[in-house]
Design brief:
With 177 residues, this protein is α+β, with helices and mostly antiparallel strands. 27% of the residues lie in helices and 25% in strands. The chain contains two helices and eight strands; from the N terminus they run αββββββββα. It has an eight-stranded mixed β-sheet with strand order 1-3-6-5-4-7-8-2, with no helix packed on it.
């Protein structure tokens, strides 16, 4: 028993140490810092414009972009407003289907290839959709379509509550039932 506990403890400690030693994962928002391609906005509806940025091309800043996966074709990237950043953009075609598409940029001087993802949806991510209407379950509600039946049900519950209270009161006095 003690040997199994030591073995499990050692395994857990080794896994924890490996987890602490590993580098932090790169997220989509860190694309420029990791030399990837940042696509902004990351989620678009067909017909919208998308912008791409990268720091992977260095000081040269010239690159060729390829958005043919989504149907937009090739587009140029030029030095951006920030130093060492290359920027370009393209129009997502109105005929684009929902899905995730890989956008590619190839740096002019070095030939380095960087990629980023673009998500095409049918609804804009900025819109919040709230549910409306009622749920059709077939059970009916407390205030159904017939107010006479509702009133009769409420009256029956009131009579039952009053009768129960009266019986409990009699029992407490010792009158019996």
């Amino acid at each position: 028993m003690r040997r199994t506990a030591r073995l499990l403890t050692g395994t857990v400690l080794a896994v924890a140490a490996a987890g602490l030693a590993s580098p932090a994962p790169a997220y989509a928002g860190d694309a420029r810092a990791t030399g990837g391609l940042e696509v902004s906005p990351s989620s678009v509806v067909p017909g919208e414009r998308a912008t791409v940025r990268t720091a992977a091309c260095g000081e040269d800043g010239a690159a060729a972009g390829d958005a043919s996966a989504v149907g937009a074709g090739e587009f140029p990237l030029a030095p951006g407003a920030r130093e060492g950043e290359t920027t370009g953009g393209f129009q997502v075609p109105p005929s684009a289907q929902p899905g995730t598409y890989e956008i590619v940029a190839t740096c002019g001087g070095s030939g380095k290839r960087v990629t980023g993802d673009l998500v095409v949806t049918l609804t804009a991510a900025r819109e919040q959709v709230y549910p409306r209407g009622s749920v059709k379950t077939g059970v009916g509600g407390a205030l159904g379509p017939d107010p006479v039946q509702t009133a009769a049900g409420v009256a029956a519950l009131a009579v039952a509550a009053a009768g129960g209270t009266w019986l409990l009161h009699r029992r407490a006095r010792g009158d019996g039932i």
